[in-house]
């Protein structure tokens, strides 16, 4: 199994590579974000099972590197950082990181996480269909309590009744629905759904959130995370629903 280690500190990298090698992992070392991106280009020699990404890099912010990796490669990314705050973690996961390890970490824990993300990535989707999926979009309908979202046909239903949505409303719901419980930053939603930068689109996002809540008749389905963004909350069984 090949692993790409992105770490600017040669001592840290050498020590870690030695430990990982003992556990059968062959490590390729990149010292900067640019080196990492180069190693991950589709025409690069052999694919990596996992990218271990240090967030404190000299040339660019590790979060930015993670976002750029996601644009060119589906290789699982584990972020390694001294920042343990929840916001950083959410930010990393929203950028497409698969996992997050906080320094100082236990080697056993790191190995377990490496194996877990590489296993997840290796499992092919069950019952593959003929239709080519859009990049990164699963084919099976997403079921969120009473709400069903079918990505290939772009249909949404609540308790079996179809709910007509506009294109952007659907894109917005589909984005949130693919990772229930995960907080999506407003900037990220705007960039993914509207393909534009943040300026001036905030109000549009709010309007779409409001209309989704109304059309689905489930105001609690999309939760506002104040100062951050939104997340989709899958309703629990009625008995255990919080007031
Ligand atoms: Ca570093």
From TrEMBL:
Gene3D superfamilies: 3.40.50.2300, 6.10.250.690, Winged helix-like DNA-binding domain superfamily/Winged helix DNA-binding domain. PROSITE patterns: OMPR_PHOB, RESPONSE_REGULATORY. Keywords: DNA-binding, Phosphoprotein, Transcription, Transcription regulation. SMART domains: REC, Trans_reg_C. The keyword Ubl conjugation does not apply. It comes from the Bacteria. Residues 139-234 bind DNA. Residues 2-118 form the Response regulatory domain. Residues 139-234 form the OmpR/PhoB-type domain. It holds the Pfam family Trans_reg_C. The modification 4-aspartylphosphate is found at residue 54. PANTHER family: REGULATOR OF RPOS (PTHR48111), SENSORY TRANSDUCTION PROTEIN REGX3 (PTHR48111:SF72). This is Sensory transduction protein RegX3.
């Amino acid at each position: 199994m090949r692993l790409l280690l992105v770490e600017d500190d040669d001592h840290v990298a050498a020590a870690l590579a030695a430990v990982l090698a003992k556990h059968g992992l062959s490590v390729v070392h990149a010292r900067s974000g640019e080196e990492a991106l180069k190693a991950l280009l589709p025409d690069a020699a052999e694919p990596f099972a996992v990218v271990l990404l240090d967030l404190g890099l000299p040339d660019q912010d590790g979060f930015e590197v993670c976002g750029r990796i996601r644009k060119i490669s589906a290789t699982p990314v584990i972020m390694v950082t001294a920042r343990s705050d929840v916001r950083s973690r959410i930010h990393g996961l929203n950028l497409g990181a698969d996992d997050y390890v906080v320094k100082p970490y236990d080697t056993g824990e790191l190995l377990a996480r490496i194996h877990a993300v590489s296993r997840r990535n290796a499992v092919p989707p069950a019952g593959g269909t003929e239709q080519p999926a859009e990049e990164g979009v699963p084919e099976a309908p997403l079921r969120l309590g009473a709400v069903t979202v079918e990505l290939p046909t772009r249909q949404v239903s609540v308790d079996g009744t179809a709910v007509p949505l506009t294109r952007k409303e659907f894109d917005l719901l589909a984005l949130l629905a693919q990772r229930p419980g995960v907080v999506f930053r407003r900037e990220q939603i705007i960039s993914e759904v509207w393909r534009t930068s943040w300026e001036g689109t905030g109000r549009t996002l709010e309007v779409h959130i409001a209309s989704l809540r109304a059309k689905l008749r489930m105001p609690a389905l999309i939760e506002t995370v104040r100062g951050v963004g939104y997340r989709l909350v899958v309703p629990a069984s009625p008995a255990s629903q919080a007031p």
